[in-house]
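Re: beginner question about structure tokens

> Can someone show what the tokenized structure looks like for a real chain? I only ever see the sequence side.

Sure, here's an example I had lying around. Input first:
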Amino acid sequence: FFENLMPCLVSYLNFDHIIDSFYTLIQYPALPVQKRAVATLSALEFALESQFSVHFDRFAELLLTILKSTDPEFQSLRSRALEAITLAALSIGKEKFQLYVPIIADILNKASIKEEASAAAASSNKCLKGNNRAYIGAAFGRLAECLGPDFEPFVPVALPLILADAAKPFPMTLNSEAIEKWCDNEVYILNVLRGIACNIGKNFAQY
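And the corresponding structure tokens:
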């Protein structure tokens, strides 16, 4: 519903009540409920745009707590939390998000290092299990859009991971769904790279 919410309907909905409900659901002690709640929060942020700003600090604590968890069972939830907090960055703007940039940058840096270690220790299919790289790469792309030229210090960390995901071999199969999925992934990566290049401007030339 929120993914397709028309702007003209926003003023007719009681978002304070809706947001209170999701704040409770994200803390619900059942992983499937938490994952759905965080994923829906991302759609809600996108629908509300700048109006979400007044609610961000409240949710930031919850999302950062999830992101700092090291339990392997919560990997999928962490990926969704990373998506939610970087989508929120686009909604609330650079000035308000600036306080959280060092924290998010540290989380992304550690996640990137972990993915590189996994890639070195496992086969390509295993290290990409859960498509965690895609979430990290997309988060870097949104952070670049939020920070603009100030994203440049993060490029040396972001590029190797994004390019590694782009290097996945073409599927040797006649399965049209697998081929379409591969093509969609490559197009998405190119869009992330284009976004980073556009946001840091001429300084991207050295990369």
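Each token stands for a local structural state, so reading them left to right follows the chain. Residues 123-130 have pLDDT under 50 and may be disordered.
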